[in-house]
Amino acid sequence: MDAIRIVEAAQLKKDRQGFEPGDQVRVHVKVIEGEKERTQIFDGTVIRKRGDGSRASFTVRRISYGVGVERTFPLHSPRIERVEVVRRSRVRRAKLYYLRGLAGKAARLKEKRAAMIPTTTEE
Length: 123
Fold this sequence. Notes:
Strand order of the largest sheet: 4-3-2-1-5
Structural class: mainly beta
Helix content: under 10%
Order of helices and strands: HEEEEEEE
Strand content: 35-45%
Shape: globular
Number of helices: 1
Radius of gyration: 18 Å
């Protein structure tokens, strides 16, 4: 059992932990077309994260030309260059499947406010 965990630990990417369900992210994916390789950006809201270790994945949803498009990415895939958080939202559950039934302004999520750090003034 420990041998499996050791092999998996080598495959984990350290820079993929900074987002949660409800966050709007920009996923930079490497796409290979014939001989050429390019980066394609998939921008949307994270509606779920599941699994742990090398099997972890997350699903991003966006509206494209009036149609909801969902795409599931393996979290530690070498095809993903980076996951960039555009904005953070305050949500009260881990899986946001209810967004599938909402459209337009109803599908908006409340933005998470930045925590105020108190500054001390020394006199």
